[in-house]
Automatic annotation (TrEMBL):
This is Aminopeptidase. Signal peptide: none annotated. One of its GO terms (molecular function) is aminopeptidase activity. It holds the Pfam family Peptidase_M29. Keywords: Aminopeptidase, Hydrolase, Metal-binding, Protease. It comes from the Bacteria. InterPro entries: M29_Exopeptidase, Peptidase_M29. Coiled coil: none annotated.
Length: 122
């Protein structure tokens, strides 16, 4: 069972997540630094290809085969076996602040600071 809650817009969130089985899972997570050219424009483009690259985002639902190495060459069965999430929808929810830190946790529990103050460290 997927647990979710929203301070406002609970019905809208529920409608998204309850679309189908795949919409109960993430399709993608993207980290975008504050200094990226599109982020610096501080503009809403009303075009997903641009807007999804202006801020960090979590994609609820469908995952793109391009997220896997050679994914576009794989059959639907191979994509499913590789764990690619499928859904009728993909909705990106943006997040981030100028002081956001992102910590990755490796297998075994080692923590790695990936972003500090909204900027990549590598």
């Amino acid at each position: 069972m997927t647990d979710y809650d929203a301070a406002t817009g609970q019905e809208a969130l529920q409608s998204l997540i309850e679309t189908d089985e795949g919409s109960h899972y993430l399709g993608e997570i993207a980290l975008v630094s504050n200094d990226s050219p599109l982020s610096q424009t501080d503009t809403l483009f009303y075009n997903t290809l641009f807007d999804e690259n202006t801020a960090c985002h979590i994609g609820i639902g469908n995952a793109s085969p391009s997220n896997l190495q050679h994914g576009s060459d794989l059959s639907v069965k191979e994509l499913m076996e590789a764990g690619l999430n499928t859904s009728l929808l993909l909705v990106n929810v943006t997040f981030g602040t100028e002081d956001m830190n992102v910590v990755g946790i490796k297998e075994g529990g080692t923590k790695v600071l990936l972003m500090e103050n909204g900027e990549f460290l590598f």
